[in-house]
Structures are given as C-alpha cells and as structure tokens.
Write a structure and sequence with these properties.
CATH architecture of the largest domain: 2-Layer Sandwich
Shape: globular
Distance between the termini: 39 Å
Order of helices and strands: EHEHEHEHEHEHEHHHEEEEEEEHHHE
Low-confidence stretches: none
Largest sheet: 7 strands, mixed
Number of strands: 15
Strand order of the largest sheet: 12-11-7-10-9-8-15
Structural class: alpha/beta
Helix content: 25-40%
Number of helices: 12
CATH topology of the largest domain: Dihydrodipicolinate Reductase, domain 2
Radius of gyration: 20 Å
Strand content: 25-35%
Amino acid sequence: MDTIKIGVAGLGRLGLIHAENISVMKGVELFAICNLDADFNREIAERLDVRYNYTEYEEMIKNPELDAVCIATPSGLHTKQIELALEKGLHVFCEKPIGLDTADIERTIEKIDSHKDMVFHLGFMRRYDPDYLYAKQLVDAGEIGDISIIRSYGIDPISGLEGFVKFAKKSPSGGIFLDMGVHDIDAIRWITGSEVSKVWANGSNKAAPELDEVNELELGTATMQLENGVTAFVVLGRTASHGYHVEAEIIGTKGMLRIAATPEKNKVTLFNEHGVVRPTSQNFPERFKEAYIGEMRDFLDCIRQNIQPEVTALDGLRGTQVAIACQESLEKDSVVEVTY
C-alpha cells in the first residue's frame, strides 16, 4: 500500500505521543482518532489535520478506508478492541499490557494467531531505545560473559503522584507491577532470553498512605529467579524528586554494563553556587522519544513487508503472568512460583 491509514484510539499521554509521531511520518496518514471527549477530539483533529474523529471505537473501525489501529485506551479494554480490529481486517498496534486477565489475553492470542495476515505489534518501547538496543547487542556478543544478575529501576517523577492517587481512587491500574513493571519484566526477559520462574515482592506507601485504601503502591520491589539461573531485582516507584528515573545494570561473568545510570536530559553540565548540576529527563515521553518513534516505524515496516515483529503477543502474556505473580507475592507476603 502507498499510504497506510491509521486510527488512534485513546488520546491520553501515550495516545497523543503516537498520534503526533504518526502525523509527521512519511508513507502514513493519521486518518482517524477516537476518544470519549468530543471537544478534545475536534481540537486534536484540527491541530494534527485528521480527517475523522469519533467518540466510539466500534464506529471508528467501521471506516472502510482504515488500514490499521493504534490502541492506547485503558488496559481493561485492550483485548476486546484488539479482537474487534482483527475481525475488521485491521493491523493492530497495542500499548502494554494486552490485558489485565490472563484468560482474556490467551483468548486474544488465539484470535491474533488466527489472523496471520494481520500484523500485531505490542508497545514494549524499551526494545527500541538506542541504549537498551546497544546493551542487548553487547550481551549477545558475549562482551560481559554469562549474565548472573540484572537490576532494573523504573521510577516516575513525584510531581505525578497526586494525579495518580486521584486516578487510582476512580479506576484500578492493575497494580504497580502490571501498570509499570511490565516494561522492566519484558526488558529482563528480552535481555536474558529466559523466563521468570519465581518471584518475591513487597512494597510501601510512605509517601502516599491513602493508596493503602485502594490496594495500590507508590513503591514496589521484586526479586526474581529466572529459569537460566539469573537473579533479577526490580524497583518501581512514583517518587523520583529529580524527574523520570529509568536505569538497568547487568552483571556478567566477564564484566558489567549500566543503562542510563543517571537519566540525563542532555550533555550539558551546569557549574554554579549549587555545585555541579546535570539536567535530567522529566518524563517518559522525553526519555523514550526515539523509542516511541522506532516502535511505530517497525509496525509500519512490518505492514509493508508483510512480516510479524520480533515482539509478540506471547511476550505480553508472559509479562502479565509475571506481574500478576508479583502482586500475588505481595498480598501473600511469600515467594510465588510463576504459572505459565
């Protein structure tokens, strides 16, 4: 096809990132948008020059000119929306997670597998981040030997904590391990090439004790044992005072490497009366800007070449299964074996 026409469902932070990226790419048209707020839809449609806007997803995917959809709606809607799009013959890019329930995800994977002519792409953007890609290449080349330990941090800026508390009181996120940790879990699986066998998780709400009432966390940690003997540590939080903090450390038998040990915004260093200051990334759109562009380009390339991406629906299921096991471990205060 000469121009791929995409409809974006959901215009929250991630939906807008994808919509804006698609709107400036060659060989693709941001053809439609869908969001519950009609006034906001009109505003975005005018700003990004979008032909159609809808308040109902089912109406958008009826558009006969549409080639693909990008789903960035609340996680609980993903499985149904993926299935409906495939039934309409549309290629699907879906943000993580595929869903909140493993039985729903397994059913959706069956639907995906029955539509081999349609491309399904899942939004694990760290796989497309230049730093993570380079680290993966070093690991695969044997530069640090066999991996023994991997540590992954994902901590949101504290400026967003109040907003999350309000959100959590209205709508369940699935818990910090599913809402945030699936990216860390996927990166661990991807880099090590191994599945997680058992987990032990805990957490606290010292900065936001009101989250206890809705069974949410502002800080969660998990220790994971992988099938190949690697030990992984995951730290998830919502209270980084300096900005958006994502990093990983991989220790091997011949060396070690770190990814973004300091989440630097750029290469500028400020020297003044406060000492030496390095600006840091303040949010995930800033830190993973290139990765979001890269994953969408890969989706489009897969459509044009009629191939499936490296990241699969099964990766989404495995990440969800590990995250659910972490939540179970937290609630039971015990080690939990991951069920696949």
